[in-house]
Specification:
By secondary structure, the chain is of the alpha/beta class.
Length: 472
Amino acid sequence: MILPVASFLTDQDFINVLYIVAFSLFIIGMQRLTKPSTARQGNMIAAVGMGFAVLGALLTPSTGDYGLIALGVAIGVIVGVPAARQVKMTAMPQMVALFNGVGGGAVALISWAEYRHYLDLGGNPPLETLIPILFAAIIGSISFWGSNVAFGKLQEILPGKPIVVPGQQIVNGLLLLAAVAAAIAIASGSESEGLFILILVAAAILGNMVVLPIGGADMPVVISLLNALTGLSAAAAGIALDNTALIVGGIIVGASGTILTKLMAEAMNRSIPSIVAGGFGGATAISSTGDDGEEKSYTSTDAADVAIQLAYASKVVVAPGYGMAVAQAQHTVRELADELERRGVEVLYAIHPVAGRMPGHMNVLLAEADVPYDALKEMDEINPEFPQVDVTLVIGANDVTNPAARTDQGSPIYGMPILDVDKSGTVIVLKRSMNTGFAGIDNPLFYNDNTSLLFGDAKASVADVLTEIKEV
């Protein structure tokens, strides 16, 4: 009885059914991720799908040493679970970049191991297997090392400003040429592990060189692009290994990552090639002085004055940015909104697509604070409403609220769609100092007649305003 059951479980048709169930759940989970209200459910559905995919892989007769697999799973659980549970929301972009890089690195190592396996059997694999292996090696290595650099910039281990090497684009072109030439040599019949290692090394250096000159302002797009590359490399590895779930899962990640990258680039009015070329974000700060050299004047305010303006407003919009994330102010912001809503004030949240350091960063932070999903308004939805807004509270958002993007053709962010907060009746900006954002440029919003600046830590400032409102 045991033998027929074992035979059934290892039958390829049964394994294929498991894979079909797996990628069906991947697709359903992805569809549920399109709305904040169903995103958590989507994650759980996709996780169950991954469970089916892993089960299918384990039941495949050619899987190999289950002891090593168990050891790898144990190490992954020991490292991954505590890291995911303990990471602060401010560090989530770093974790996304790091974990995405691990996926690319795994694909590169799998490609290398698979090529070594075929060499041990007596030669190169057939072209239908060899070409995906070579593609996965190049893209996986680029993704791993590029993601590590992105992690380093976000974690401030590396400078956030662009790091440019003389002749950068020429060097990048030569590195890509070396990797592709080595791949062509292997595909043409050369049986050389040395050439394969050259591919991995050239792609690794290229991954570093591509991301180093990209500034912090472009990091959301970079993370999305690297995620797409990891997905494509995983799909190629799936073709080489004849693994249906890996193919479909990789294609889903690659396609969705590519679409998201395009949307993020459009939200910044920049082309993807210009972002990859680097040079935007983290530049030397432009002075906040007028044409005559005089320091431009701005209006500072205090918590009591802000409380009065908010308490007697009819409609308030919160425009969050990375400063809110750094200060971990999202819970205090939610408490402030609750108090205002009890007083009959309508409170909405203006979400710019590239606010923060990863796609959807502000949505994640506000969801953590249980902000109602229907209060989150995307840029295109909220911008027409700003002329009817009494007070806009800008919390740590700099470049995405900079009106120079509409008027100053010499500005590096010219043409980038922004939140039209300056059209509100009153704008209150919460800042630590007059320092610039990642684009390294001054923000004319700060000097407008309808703008006041509340200096200090965002969380402490919001808490002070909340205290004052309760006494109004």
